[in-house]
Amino acid sequence: MPLSSSDFETQMMDVDGQVLRVGRQRGGGRPLLLFNGIGANIEMLAPFAQRLAGREIVTFDVPGVGHSLLPRFPYRLSTVARLAARVLDRLGHADCDALGVSWGGAAAQQFARSHAPRCRRLVLCATSAGAAMLPAHPRVLRKMLTPRRYMDEAYAREVAGDLYGGDFRSRPDLVAHVLRHVRWQSRLGYYLQLIAVWGWTSAYWLHRLEQPTLVMHGRDDPLVPLANAHLLGALIPRSELRVVDCGHLFLLTRAEESARAIDEFLNQPDASWSF
Asked: Of 38, 92, 204, 248, which sits with the fewest C-beta atoms within 10 Å of its C-beta?
């Protein structure tokens, strides 16, 4: 299946001394704030974002990824959440809905907790509660410890099925469609993202989240096993779980289906989620 691209309107923004590359897809209504996966730049989610045409979307390359400058010091997810809030300030948005995928799902959870009044609804895709997660098989985790898949297309094709599951098991050629959106910067930026989530977990405070939450997960996800989605759904009070018949990158390989489900969730009347 072809994965088409759409360009975000981008700008470099100095946010509390950290220079970030911020992307914006203009539209109406409350913005959707996107938190991307590890090593992934703004363009990686563009094929999905264009399926949400008409909706305002805001995202940014985290420090050291894509075209955002490297930070002066290592950071934690609380820093990413704070930067996201400041980006919203600069763009004139009082609140938003938030969506996070994989590593970005952890950042989205932290944003929903640290800046709760600014997060109306939450969408968590292919993610977990952090250190409390059911881990992937060690052979899969070893492949995640290096950003080599972003730098070497032949290697990426070789490991795609093991890492992402779903369509990538039978169609490693899909890797080329994903990699064409990569804006690679440095190994250090990648490792700083790993450090940011080291030891982090949301398991002990997820029961306090008040945001209605859609948990989406691929049925065949070797990187973040499906059991983690069931755990999130059990811990978050106002949540619903939707399982997609694909793998870790279902937002790209099932972009239409995913966008439709997310649109339906975000457009539900708030009264339908009362306790």
From this structure: 92
Model pTM score:
0.94
Tens-place pLDDT, residues 151-210:
888 898 999 999 999 999 998 888 888 777 887 788 999 999 999 999 999 999 999 999
What are the tens digits of pLDDT across the range 38-78? Answer: 999 999 888 899 999 889 999 999 999 999 999 999 999 99
Alpha helix (H) residue ranges in the chain: 46-49, 77-91, 103-114, 138-144, 148-151, 153-164, 174-179, 187-197, 227-235, 250-253, 255-267
Q: Report yes or no: 143 and 164 within 8 Å, Cβ to Cβ.
A: no
**Mean pLDDT rounded to a whole number for the chain:** 92
The candidate with the shortest Cα–Cα distance to 257, out of 216, 197, 209, is 216
HSE-CB at 127 with a 13 A cutoff on CA atoms is 33
**How many other CB atoms are found less than 10 A from the CB of residue 180?**
12
Q: 265 with 121: CB under 8 angstroms?
A: yes
**Average pLDDT for residues 92-114, to the nearest whole number?**
98
Query: Residues 111, 114, 118, 122: is their CA dihedral positive or negative?
Result: positive
Is residue 272 among the annotated active site residues? no
Q: Are 27 and 53 in contact, with CB atoms under 8 Å apart?
A: yes
Sheet with 213-218, strands from edge to edge, namely 9-15, 18-25, 55-60, 28-35, 96-101, 119-125, 213-218, 239-244
Q: Give the distance, in angstroms, between the CA of residue 226 and the centroid of all CA atoms in the same chain.
A: 16
Among left, alpha and beta (phi > 0; psi -120 to 50; other), residue 92 is: left
Q: In a 10 Å sphere around its CB, with 0-12 CB exposed, 13-18 middle and 19+ buried, how is residue 139 labelled?
A: exposed
109 Cβ contact partners less than 8 Å away, ≥ 6 residues apart: 100, 122, 124, 127, 129, 202, 206, 209
